[in-house]
Amino acid sequence: MTDYNNSRYKLILKYPASWWRNQWREALPSGNGKIGAAVYGGVNQETIVINHEDLWHMGRKDELPDVSDTLKETRSLIANKQFNEANWSLTNALKRKNYQTRLASVMPLGDLKVRMSNKEVFQHYRRVLNMETGEIDVSWKEGKQRISRRLFVSRADDVIVYELESEAEIDSVDFQVSLHKSDSHKMHDKVEKLSKTVKDKADGNFLFYSVTNDDHTDFGAVIRIVPMNGQCVTNAHSINCKQVKKVIAFIKVFVKSDHQLEWPKLQKELVLVRPNYQEHLNRHVPLHQQLFHSASLSLEGNDYTRSNEELLLEAYEGDVSLELIEKMWSFGRYLFISGTRDRGEPFSMYGLWAGDYNLMWGHRMANENIQMMYWHANVGGLTECIPPLFYYYENMLDDFRENASKLFGCRGIYIPAGTTPGIGVPNQIVPVIMNWTGAAGWLAQHFYDYYLYTNDEEFLKDHLLPFMREIACFYEDFLVKGNDDTYTFIPSVSPENTPQNFMPKTSEPIAHPMPTAINATMDIAIVKELLQHLIEACVHTELYLEEIEKWETILNGLPAYMLNHEGALKEWSNTEFEDRYDHRHLSHIYPLFPGKELQEESETAFLKHVRKQ
Fold first, then answer.
1. 497: which residues sit within 8 A by CB, 6+ positions away?
2. For residue 603, what pLDDT is reported?
3. Sign, CA torsion 292/297/300/305
4. How confident is the model over 337-363, as pLDDT tens digits?
């Protein structure tokens, strides 16, 4: 038996998930990049939330109306210094057309409920996530007897493996699978509608479960329960194991299908599965560790014996231990490799562990969030996890071309900040999102870095270079060329800030009162970086060489960065807009990070102006 007992990679908790409502937020996560399982850790009643990367609902995709004529109006209003009116020009035009596209939302597939009889009060409780293996262990003592429950999501077999083991016989263990409940009052009707489509049954040592989604396809699971001793009693909707010391369960899930096809298919697959927990773990672990150990962080002075509670309480007192820093670093990597895969969906802000039906940040947000989640991937040895991000956006190129044409009258592509699978048209109809054009260029940075790390020439020629060229086409049409051959970004947004002199004189918080400006520093930096990479790639591949001259002309005509009265890098290269420091974003330092322009030796003198931020 292989021992995976390195405490350096363990998160140790002394209590179950404990939030009032929203317990899923404290559940411990396991996943293989496609299927996720989150363990609450209850003693008498356990809940395991099951997720799948392709399970979404409630999306709506309207035909995008042609409102490209508003760009001229926006620019005219800005020229007349009617900035507040210009701010709403495009947004209001879409609203007048009754355009109501809505992003889809991730949703939980269901819950596995495990109810146990308990003879005594539990003691010495531990809930442990082993990040090195992806295994979750919930254990406690009843009197002198130890009881443990272990789970992992297998990369080798695409199945959730769950084992319950006790030193003494357990009188009764009841297994049932059910629709996940919602903690949101707004989702009550939606969940009630889903519940009316639930089909579940128990047959022999199998549990069958399905729900019909709003696209009229089914999702669900088949679960095989194998008691290693004792007896198994099948009820209408549950399986009860009596006088057992060990029970193992295997869970296979399906989405976007028909339960009448999936139930017998998955049942046949599960019949062939050998009921040996350690055997399955040993096949899974090398695949998991190949990713997890592609990089490591080791800080001196750690003993790795303290629980999460102890580490966090110490940090709340003001002393953040090196052990906590190291474990947080490892946990971030663990979540990433468990929540995406080389041929699947890109990582999301909730990973594969969404515990409700309409989560605020369940979509992919490309005005910093998704980029931030992938910053570590190349340098952390996880380049194989990056292509899903590219192919996700590449699959919606038709939407992005339509956006560029119908919103701005431009060729090329415009990527809205927020997207979900198959919905690449605008959806968050507010000025701070609609008037920002930098998402595509910023994403191109990730893909170009991927090429530099991998030297994948096929990816460069067949995918990346055409993608960057379409972004360049957009800016060729979008940028305003002046009589002096300089270019101007109108409109231009620095996510998600409003210039100080356009902040309302009120104490009430307003999210984004007037973000639409001219020549945001970030916009300048993104286009400069994009064109430099594009020219480099064309020279290297000897493709599109005839277009380099026009891109160099744009590069030479881009606005220069400006300094404010304090000598700091200005957020907008235009004197109309005053810097506002009281803001959580630092978009304008893009030339330094995540861009690399100011990291070049010849630009080090300019760094002092960035440090003033």
1. 515, 571, 580, 583, 585, 587
2. 60
3. negative
4. 999 999 899 999 999 999 999 999 999
> Which CATH entry fits the domain spanning 70-98+363-611: 3.20.20.70, 1.50.10.10, 3.40.50.1370, 3.40.50.150?
1.50.10.10
Question: Residue 4's closest CA among 166, 154, 137?
Answer: 137
* Residue-wise pLDDT tens digits, 24-67: 999 999 999 999 999 999 999 999 999 999 999 999 999 999 99
Q: Cβ of 212: how many Cβ atoms within 10 Å?
A: 18
Closest CA to 8 of 163, 133, 127: 133
Q: Please tell me the distance from the alpha carbon of residue 50 to that of residue 160, in angstroms, as a whole number.
A: 9
| Separation between Cα atoms, residue 398 and residue 414, nearest integer Å | 10
Dihedral class, residue 539 (left if φ above 0, else alpha if ψ from -120 to 50, else beta): alpha
| H/E element, 334 | helix 322-339
* pLDDT tens digits, 507-535: 676 778 999 999 999 999 999 999 999 99
Q: How many other C-beta atoms can be found within 10 angstroms of the C-beta atom of residue 583?
A: 14
Instruction: Give the number of residues written for the chain.
Output: 613
The pair of three-digit structure tokens given for residue 341, joined into one six-digit string:
């895969």
Q: Is the pTM of this model over 0.70?
A: yes
Is the CATH code 1.10.10.10 the one for domain 7-57+107-288? Answer: no
